[in-house]
From TrEMBL, chain A:
The active site is at 89 (glycyl thioester intermediate). SUPFAM superfamilies: UBC-like. The lineage of its organism: Eukaryota, Viridiplantae, Streptophyta, Embryophyta, Marchantiophyta. It comes from the Eukaryota. This is E2 ubiquitin-conjugating enzyme. Keywords: ATP-binding, Nucleotide-binding, Peroxisome biogenesis, Transferase, Ubl conjugation pathway. SMART domains: UBCc. One of its GO terms (biological process) is peroxisome organization. One of its GO terms (molecular function) is ubiquitin conjugating enzyme activity. Its EC number is 2.3.2.23. It holds the Pfam family UQ_con.
From TrEMBL, chain B:
It catalyses: Thiol-dependent hydrolysis of ester, thioester, amide, peptide and isopeptide bonds formed by the C-terminal Gly of ubiquitin (a 76-residue protein attached to proteins as an intracellular targeting signal). Its EC number is 3.4.19.12. Keywords: Hydrolase, Protease, Thiol protease, Ubl conjugation pathway. Residues 69-279 form the OTU domain. GO terms for molecular function: cysteine-type deubiquitinase activity; ubiquitin binding. It comes from Riccia fluitans. This is Ubiquitin thioesterase.
Length: 155, 287
């Protein structure tokens, strides 16, 4: 199975780089290489910086020809993340996917999305509306509140 | 704003993986209508297609018959250029049994590999795709345990795993060539897409299903060192409004400047590529 071989390579790479990318911790399910968990640090100078967010990664059999399914397990207030399901609106997880991406670089892209919310393609309309109406203070305080409630590291 | 921070209208929306699954289902339904590459058919099937159609097309198809005698269709899934190229080139190797040619192309593949690494691609992200293509090249040559005949080649090019992996390898190679020679390609890319070279490669070259045009063809042809002819079947007529000669363009990499007719000949109709067979080869091929 090509996807399995590829995932083993990614697994080895993750073990080798352990500690280099301290913002991302990628963990493979011990019994199933198609299921991964990622812990990502909220980027600095954003309302997410105090938080660590858990992502659930489901890798389909046709990987890496098709993208992994990634969603937030930790509640987050962000225009491009569905507030209830944790689904992420990110082009590389859909039509712009290519096998040049890896689980690690996908996590980096998710962190970049946290730092650069795209208010024009919102999955969380309320959050998108705050940003589109220019209420950055409102957005920041909501996002910060949910970060403290759901993603605080010192709980 | 409701108390939960999410809008009510979002509830009815299908999830993205459901949309993707639906998208795949549509493609799968299409797949049953036509293989990745079809059977070799006489060019008369094309004439039948335009029997009741546009008179310019009809006249052009007739003219096409002077130089070409057969067509092999590719599935229209956005990868048709790469799939057509794959089959057409491997068939060329199978027929010419030209080992030196394979070695030459393998050297170019090595170059592409180095370019990808220099551009920052991790080797494990493309090596599986690369080795699948090299395997196909090797088994198109005679006298090996893995050697294939034309029927087996057709089967392989219809195999989803093999075909998709080779297409993806071509996409990596194409992207690397464009990015390596960004200055050369930039004006063409701006002309068709309004994107930067890097954006273009990320959005229109590397993802599966993204259609190809002259930028992709030039890049792949140059990178692998394989000349490609594209025959254009469209509604355009010459300056006098009557000329229904069929135009073609030959993409000839500099290392192949002496080539007369490229080994790969494709028919382009707006939005789609198929494989053409030249009359010159008619006697040699017996399918």
């Amino acid at each position: 199975m090509a996807s399995r071989a590829r995932l083993f390579k990614e697994y080895k790479e993750v073990q080798r780089d352990r500690g280099q990318d301290s913002d991302i911790q990628l963990l493979c399910d011990e019994t199933n290489i198609y299921r991964w968990t990622a812990l990502i640090k909220g980027p600095t100078d954003t309302p997410y910086q105090e938080g660590v967010f858990q992502l659930a990664i489901n890798v389909p059999e046709q990987y890496p020809l098709v993208p992994p399914q990634v969603r937030f397990v930790t509640k987050i207030f962000h225009p491009n993340v569905h507030f209830k399901t944790g689904e992420i609106c990110l082009d590389i997880l859909k039509t712009a996917w290519s096998p040049a991406w890896t689980l690690q670089s996908v996590c980096r892209a998710v962190i970049a999305l946290l730092a650069h919310p795209e208010a024009d393609s919102p999955l969380n309309c309320d959050c998108g509306n705050l940003l589109r109406s220019g209420d950055h203070r409102g957005y920041k305080s909501m996002a910060l509140m949910y970060t403290r409630l759901a993603a605080a590291t010192n709980v | 704003m409701n108390s939960e921070g999410g809008g009510a209208s979002e509830e009815d929306r299908p999830r993205d993986d459901e949309i993707l699954a639906f998208h795949h289902a549509i493609r799968a339904a299409d797949a049953e209508k036509l293989e990745f590459v079809g059977d070799k058919e006489p060019l008369t099937v094309l004439a039948a297609e335009y029997e009741a159609g546009n008179p310019v097309f009809k006249a052009k198809v007739e003219n096409l018959g002077q130089s070409y005698f057969a067509i092999r269709r590719a599935r229209g899934d956005g990868n048709c250029f790469f799939r057509s190229f794959m089959f057409s080139y491997l068939e060329h190797i199978l027929e010419t049994k030209n080992e030196a040619e394979v070695r030459r192309v393998e050297k170019n593949i090595e170059q592409s590999k180095r370019a990808l690494i220099e551009l920052g691609y991790q080797e494990f992200t493309f090596e599986d795709f690369l080795s699948i293509f090299v395997e196909q090249l090797e088994s198109a040559l005679p006298g090996r345990e893995t050697s294939v005949d034309i029927d087996q080649l057709v089967q392989r090019c219809r195999d989803r795993y093999i075909s998709d992996y080779v297409v993806m390898f071509f996409r990596f190679v194409t992207s690397a060539e464009i990015r390596k020679r960004a200055e050369f390609f930039e004006p063409f890319i701006i002309g068709i897409s309004n994107m930067s070279v890097q954006q273009f490669c990320k959005a229109s070259v590397e993802p599966m299903g993204e259609e190809s045009d002259h930028v992709h063809i030039t890049a792949l042809s140059d990178a692998l060192g394989v000349p490609i002819r594209v025959v254009y079947l469209d509604r355009s007529v010459g300056a006098d409004g009557k000329n229904t000669d069929v135009n073609h363009h030959d993409f000839i990499p500099s290392e192949c400047s002496g080539v007369d007719i490229p080994p790969v000949v494709l028919l382009y109709r707006p939005g789609h590529y198929d494989i053409l067979y030249t009359r010159k080869d008619e006697g040699r091929q017996n399918e």
